Amino acid sequence: MKKKSKKQLKFGLIGRNISYSFSKKYFSEKFEISHFDNCEYKNYNIESVKEFSKIVSETKGLMGFNVTIPYKEEIIPMLDKLSKTAKIIGAVNCVTVSKKRKLKGYNTDYYGFKKTIKPLLKEHHKKALILGTGGASKAVAYALRKLKIEYDFVSRTPDEFQFDYADLNAEFFEEYHIIINTTPVGTHPNVEDCINLDYNLFTKKHIAYDLVYNPEETAFLRKAKDNGAKTKNGYDMLVFQAEKSWKIWNG
């Protein structure tokens, strides 16, 4: 009797300009090491979120996918359901596809961030500045709330509740000892780009955290480190959020 072959299971990443993607390399290696021969992870590089529905309807065996810039918020109206956490955060980076093609959105970014910043925290780390206001910044804010750390957002186009980069003077750096870059500024190949700050204001009391992981040390991290700050890039956060996504897809 002929042995029945395993069903091909497909996963992927929805985003724009994602050839550099961490996820594809990470999951492809995971599948190879674990001998998940029936699993495949693919990049879905789309110019508009409108192309998303076509991918879901035409991809046979699609079990789930991750979502990255710039669709973490835009994708929400196209989903059938949200987890409680994703609803509160207002951004999605992980989606499950049911047998009936029903889509449920989750956020695993906040989990990855919380898991990786927690070991760095000391008694004086009570307030944080979140640089950027996109989907990733919302996950970071949620994690900080869970850790009981106060935070404020900084934006190039601030509203009445946000600060402008020009506001960030010595007084701010004396009050806020965690500075988190959630923007893509400094990502490869634009490795010399960095957020416009007075980096001399960083001290050994500060944590500089950059969600960017490629390059390993961004200009933002390098300049903060030169002034004594403890630094962390986004690589470990991505690993934790990826493993959490895998658990959700197989839940």
Concise overview:
With 251 residues, the chain is of the alpha/beta class.
Report on the architecture of this protein.
The chain is α/β, with parallel strands linked by helices. The protein contains eight helices and twelve strands. The chain has a six-stranded mixed beta sheet, with helices on both faces. Strands 9-8-7-10-11-12 form a six-stranded parallel beta sheet. Strand 1, helix 1 and strand 2 form a beta-alpha-beta unit. The chain starts with 8 loop residues before the first strand and ends with a helix. The mean pLDDT is 95.
State the helix count. Answer: 8
Within CATH, the superfamily of the largest domain carries the name NAD(P)-binding Rossmann-like Domain
Based on CA atoms alone, the radius of gyration comes out at 19 Å
Structural domain tally:
2
Number of strands: 12
Q: Report the CATH topology name of the largest domain.
A: Rossmann fold
Roughly how many Å apart are the termini?
A: 32 Å
- Strand arrangement, largest sheet? 2-1-3-5-6-4
- The helix/strand series, from N terminus to C terminus, equals EHEHEEHEEHEHEEHEEHEH
Q: Any guess at the CATH architecture of the largest domain?
A: 3-Layer(aba) Sandwich
Shape: elongated
What CATH first level of the largest domain would be assigned?
Alpha Beta
Strand content: 15-25%
- Assembly type of the chains comes to single chain
Query: By helix and strand content, what is the structural category?
Result: alpha/beta
pLDDT averaged over residues:
95
Helical content class? 25-40%
Largest sheet: 6 strands, mixed
Low-confidence stretches: none
